[in-house]
Specification:
Helix content is about 75%, strand content about 0%.
Length: about 600
C-alpha cells in the first residue's frame, strides 16, 4: 500500500506549471522594473526592494536546508538535544537570508547594466526551465524518495539551466567584436554607472566602486582578446555565469509549490504526515518578517551615516578607490597630459634609432674620410714629381709675378695633392645625416600627439607627474649622439650645405703643412730657384741672356737632382704624416677613433 506521503500531490507530481509561469513572469517583471527604477529610487525605495527580493532566494535556500534537517532528524531520539538542534530554524533562516541579501545586492547593482541579449536569454530561461525539469524529473523520480524529489529536482535543474544559458551567451560573445581599450581608465570611463546620481549614497558609492572593478575587468578582457579571442570568450563567460546561475536559482524557487515552501515555517514533518496540515510556527514567521525589515531599516541608517562621512571628508570614498585602482598617472608636458609609459617608450626608441643611424653614418663618414685622404696620399708622389720636374723654376717665376713664393707653394701643394679629390661627398653625407635626424625628430613629435591623454577623464581620476623638462628638451637628450656628430662637422668647418666642404679640408691641411720645417724649405727653395734663374737670364744683354739661361738651366738641373736625391723620401714621409695627422683629427672628431 502506498504511504500517505506517496499519495500526496505535493510529492507525487510536479507542481502545475501555470503557477510557475505566473511566478517567473512576476519575477522577471520586478527585476526589469528594478533595473530601470533603482538608479533613481530614494533610499527607502531601494531598501524595500532589496529586502523583499532577498526574501525570495532565502526561502529557497531555507527549503533545501529544511529537507536536509527532515532527513537528519531520524537519527536522533525525540526530545534529545540533537533532535531539538536539528528541528531549530532560527540559524537556518538567518544564514539563508544573509546569503540571499549579498546575492541580491549584487543583482540590484548589476541588473541596470544588463544589455538586450542578456534580457532575451533570461526570458527564454523561463520556458527552458520547464523543459529541463521534465528531463531531470525522470531521473529524480526514479532515484530519490518522495521526501527529497522536489529539492533534488531544483538542485539538478539549476546547474543544467545555468550551463545552457552560458552556452547560449557564448554564442552571443563569439558573434560580437571584443571591446578594445588603450588604458584601464578608458575601460573605467566606458563602464555604465547607472547609480552615479543615485539619491542613495551607498548605492552611488557602490556603483562607482563596481565600475572600477568592471572597468579593470573589461580592460583585462580587451588585452586577453588581443592575444586569444577564445580566451576572451571563456573569461567573459565565466564572469557572467554568476548572473545566469543566480537567475536559474530564482526560477527554481518559483517552481517550488507553496505547500512545499510552507515547510520552512512548520515543525519538521514525519514521514507519514501531510505537511500542509501542520500549523505555522509563529516565531519562524516573525523572524522571516523581521529580517527584511531589519535589512531595510539598517540600509536606511547606514546610508545616512555614509552620506555624513562623505560630506565630512569632502570627497567620495569610491572616487578615492577608483583613483587608486585605475592609477591613471600622466606626464604634464607643455600644459598637456600624456601617457608616461608611452612617452618614455617613444624617447627610448628615438634614442635607439639615433644610435643606430649615428653608427651607420659614422661608418659611412669614416669610409669617405679614408677615401679622400687615401687619394691625397696617392697624390704625394705626383706632387713631388711636379716639384722636382726640370725647367720648373721658370714656370714658378711666371706664376709668382703677382704673389709671394709661399703663396705660390701653398697653392701648388693644394692643387697637386688634391687632384681627383672631392671633399664635398663628406658634406653631402653630413647633409643626408642631418635630414635623417630631422625626420626622426619630426616623427617623434608627430607620434607624441598620439599619446596625449584626452580631457574625457575627470580631474579627480588623474594623478599628474611633472616630467621635469619639456618634451623638446627630453627629445634633445635622446638625439644627443646625433648632435655631437653634427657639431663635430661644424667645428671642422664642414657645413651641411653642399659644396662648402670643398676647399675647407684642403685649407686646414695646408695650414697644418705650412708649419712644418720641410714645407718652409720647399717654399724657400721655390723662391730661390726662380729668382736665381731670372737674375742670370738678365745679365749682359742678349748674349748675357743666352749665357744666363744656360747657366740657369745647368744650375737648376744640378740643384734639383741633388735635392731630389737628398730629400725626396723624407719630404714624402713628412707630407704623408701631415695628411694622416689631419685624417686622424677628422676621424677622431666623428668618433671613428678614440
Amino acid at each position: 500500500m502506498p504511504s500517505a506521503m506517496d499519495n500526496s500531490s505535493a510529492f507525487a507530481k510536479i507542481r502545475p506549471w501555470a503557477g510557475y509561469l505566473a511566478s517567473a513572469a512576476a519575477l522577471l517583471a520586478i527585476l526589469f522594473a528594478v533595473s530601470r527604477l533603482a538608479p533613481n529610487m530614494p533610499t527607502w525605495g531601494i531598501a524595500l526592494a532589496w529586502a523583499l527580493l532577498s526574501l525570495v532566494p532565502a526561502l529557497g535556500v531555507s527549503y533545501h536546508l529544511v529537507i536536509k534537517k527532515t532527513f537528519e532528524q531520524g537519527k536522533y531520539q525525540e526530545g534529545g538535544y540533537g533532535s531539538r538542534l536539528v528541528a531549530g530554524r532560527v540559524a537556518c533562516l538567518v544564514v539563508s537570508f544573509a546569503v540571499s541579501a549579498v546575492f541580491m545586492a549584487s543583482l540590484l547593482v548589476e541588473c541596470p547594466k544588463w544589455d538586450a541579449p542578456v534580457w532575451v536569454l533570461l526570458v527564454l530561461a523561463v520556458p527552458a526551465y520547464i523543459l529541463v525539469s521534465f528531463v531531470v524529473g525522470k531521473m529524480v523520480r526514479k532515484e530519490y524518495a518522495p521526501l527529497h524529489r522536489q529539492s533534488y529536482l531544483a538542485k539538478f535543474s539549476v546547474p543544467v539551466l545555468g550551463v545552457l544559458l552560458c552556452l547560449a551567451y557564448a554564442v552571443v560573445l563569439a558573434a560580437t567584436p571584443a571591446e578594445t581599450y588603450n588604458y584601464a581608465a578608458d575601460a573605467f570611463i566606458a563602464e555604465a554607472r547607472p547609480f552615479a546620481d543615485s539619491p542613495s549614497t551607498i548605492m552611488s558609492e557602490a556603483g562607482e566602486a563596481l565600475a572600477v572593478v568592471d572597468g579593470l575587468r573589461s580592460y583585462a578582457l580587451s588585452k586577453t582578446a588581443e592575444g586569444s579571442f577564445g580566451s576572451y570568450v571563456f573569461w567573459s563567460l565565466l564572469l557572467k555565469s554568476a548572473a545566469f546561475f543566480g537567475f536559474a536559482t530564482l526560477l527554481s524557487v518559483c517552481a517550488i509549490p507553496l505547500s512545499e515552501l510552507r515547510r520552512v515555517f512548520t515543525e519538521l514533518w514525519d514521514s507519514g504526515e501531510r505537511g500542509k496540515d501542520k500549523p505555522l510556527v509563529g516565531r519562524y514567521v516573525v523572524l522571516a518578517t523581521a529580517l527584511p525589515v531589519a535589512l531595510a531599516v539598517g540600509f536606511v541608517v547606514a546610508d545616512g551615516n555614509a552620506a555624513a562621512v562623505v560630506e565630512s571628508k569632502g570627497y567620495s570614498i569610491a572616487q578615492e578607490f577608483a583613483r587608486n585602482s585605475v592609477d591613471l598617472v600622466v606626464y604634464a608636458i607643455d600644459g598637456k597630459r600624456y601617457d608616461p609609459e608611452k612617452v618614455d617608450g617613444l624617447l627610448s626608441r628615438t634614442r635607439a634609432a639615433t644610435d643606430e643611424i649615428t653608427e651607420e653614418e659614422k661608418e659611412a663618414l669614416t669610409n669617405l674620410v679614408n677615401e679622400v685622404f687615401d687619394k691625397r696620399v696617392e697624390n704625394v708622389d705626383g706632387y713631388l714629381d711636379w716639384y722636382y720636374r726640370l725647367f720648373g723654376d721658370w714656370e714658378m717665376l711666371f706664376k709668382m709675378i703677382q704673389g709671394s713664393a709661399e703663396e705660390f707653394a701653398e697653392e701648388q701643394f693644394i692643387e697637386q695633392i688634391g687632384k681627383g679629390v672631392d671633399d664635398t661627398v663628406i658634406a653631402a653625407e653630413y647633409e643626408k645625416y642631418q635630414a635623417r635626424i630631422y625626420d626622426l625628430r619630426a616623427s617623434a613629435m608627430e607620434e607624441l600627439s598620439e599619446y596625449e591623454i584626452s580631457d574625457k577623464y575627470p580631474d579627480w581620476l588623474v594623478t599628474e607627474v611633472d616630467a621635469g623638462e619639456s618634451f623638446q628638451q627630453r627629445l634633445d637628450h635622446s638625439l644627443e649622439p646625433a648632435q655631437q656628430l653634427l657639431s663635430a662637422g661644424e667645428r671642422l668647418g664642414i657645413s651641411t650645405v653642399a659644396g662648402v666642404a670643398a676647399g675647407v679640408i684642403a685649407k686646414k691641411l695646408i695650414a697644418k703643412v705650412a708649419q712644418k720645417a720641410f714645407f718652409k724649405t720647399i717654399a724657400s727653395r721655390v723662391g730661390d730657384l726662380a729668382t736665381t734663374s731670372a737674375a742670370a737670364a738678365t745679365l749682359g744683354g742678349p748674349p748675357g741672356a743666352a749665357i744666363g739661361i744656360g747657366v740657369g738651366l745647368a744650375t737648376d738641373i744640378a740643384l734639383t737632382k741633388a735635392d731630389e736625391l737628398m730629400n725626396r723620401e723624407s719630404y714624402k714621409e713628412e707630407i704623408v704624416a701631415s695628411i694622416n695627422e689631419q685624417r686622424d683629427e677628422l676621424l677622431s672628431a666623428i668618433g671613428a677613433i678614440g
